[in-house]
Amino acid sequence: MKRIGLFLLVNMLVLLTIVIVTTLLGVGQYIEPTGINYTSLLAFSMVVGFSGAFISLAISRWMAKMMMNVRVLDPRANLSPRERDLVEKVHTFARNAGITDMPEVGIYNSPEVNAFATGPSKNRSLVAVSSGLLQRMDDDAIEGVLAHEVAHVANGDMVTMTLVQGVINTFVVFLSRVAAFAASRFVREDMAHIVHFVLIIVFQILFGILGSIAVMAFSRYREYRADFGGADLAGKEKMIRALQQIKQSVHMVSQDQEAYQSLKINGGKSKLLGLFASHPDLDDRIRRLQER
After folding, report:
1. What percentage of the chain has pLDDT greater than the value 70?
2. What percent of the chain has pLDDT over 90?
3. Distance between CA atoms of 289 and 270, rounded to whole angstroms?
4. Which of 7, 189, 231, 289 is the least buried, fewest Cβ under 10 Å from its Cβ?
5. What is the pLDDT of residues 24-48, one digit of tens each?
6. What is the pLDDT of residue 271?
7. What are all long-range contacts of 279-287, with beta carbons under 8 Å and residues at least 24 apart?
8. Which has the closest alpha carbon to 228: 139, 124, 155?
């Protein structure tokens, strides 16, 4: 969830910033005396939508390091045996997955069992694990987690997520302006411009939340692929063991912390919450690996 959460947060902030600046500067005018020029609005929406997504992708690795206070392990430095083993395992999996430039490997202090991979491309990536994961999981399970994260990198998941988010952003920008324009027609003419501007932001946030349902659905699909990729790199039993130990760790944390487990978003206790889950149910993931 760390990887997805950071990406979505940065994307929303970048998108809102672009929208506010372009609106205040009058860039991308699409309202004509006869109404909305939908062709101009769609072109504007695509530029803004994909710009927000790709800016988020470009700064994803830097943002993750800063927000999570990740300590990057330098392979040339005097690392502890545990740290060196961590780097070597990630690099071994990366080479076996066909990655040419090795991912950065980092650790951040947190009691939660968590790991994530991020970065703008396969050859500019970061794999980070929490101190809690290293303390609570055995070596086989840790290998499964690392292989899973390397599989995300090898699959180019951050790039495909960016493309999906760009499409969603385009619809969010487009629909929010159409809805804001329609609503502003019901107020006094001298207030219409202000109401239109405010409603653009309001509708963009609302439609952005709804759009995240599609993004989360794609994220759940990617997790199954990363599980299979992790099984290919580390072995099916180690991947299954990793998921089983993550499941066990869920019972050791509070309900609030549950929502942030890296490989476990259990689909929620209702279908509504399940729509916003970035990860499938753990039992289903384990079952699919066992049947593979």
Report:
1. 87
2. 50
3. 24
4. 189
5. 666 567 888 888 889 989 988 998 8
6. 67
7. 279/1, 279/219, 279/220, 279/223, 280/220, 280/223, 280/224, 282/243, 282/246, 282/247, 282/250, 283/247, 285/223, 285/224, 285/227, 285/243, 286/240, 286/243, 286/244, 286/247
8. 155
Residues with Cβ within 8 Å of 94's Cβ and at least 6 positions away in sequence, in order, are: 102, 103, 150, 153, 154
Average pLDDT over residues 7-24: 72
Least Cα distance to 93 among 231, 226, 232, 233 occurs for 233
Which segments are annotated as binding site for Zn(2+)? Answer: 148, 152, 223
pLDDT-based confidence at 278, cuts 50/70/90?
Answer: confident
14: Cβ contacts below 8 Å, ≥ 6 apart? 51, 52, 55, 56
Neighbours of 152 (CB within 10 A): 24
Distance of alpha carbon 245 from alpha carbon 239, whole angstroms: 10
Query: How far apart are the C-alpha atoms of 184 and 128, rounded to whole Å?
Result: 47
Provide the 10 A C-beta neighbour count for residue 245.
20
Q: How far apart are CA 167 and CA 162, in angstroms?
A: 9
Structure tokens at 144: 């499964």
Place of tokens 């963009």: 204
**Active site (catalytic) residues:** 149
Annotated binding site: 148, 152, 223
Dist CA 157 CA 179 (whole Å): 32
The token duo for 278 is 């970035």
User: Of 121-135, 190-204, 249-263, where does the model show the most confidence?
Assistant: 121-135
Q: Which alpha helices (DSSP H) does 59-138 contain, by range? A: 60-68, 81-96, 131-136
- Indicate the residue type of 170: T
